[in-house]
Fold this sequence. Notes:
Layout: H1 8-23, H2 32-64
Helix pairs in contact: 1-2
Amino acid sequence: MAKKETGFNEAVKGIEDILKKIEEGEADIDRLSEDVKKAAELIKICRQRLRETGEKIDGIIQDLKP
């Protein structure tokens, strides 16, 4: 079965959850490096989605020009 792609909102929620655990001191020190790695992966996903969306919007705007 193919792995479902993580959407932008899902990635942002994951980042927020990790940050909340860290800020509230609930982060498990034994898992902290894993959580930070996961947050970095989620940030990459967000950047990629934003880049793709920007390119699509630019294309739409170009198509509207006479």
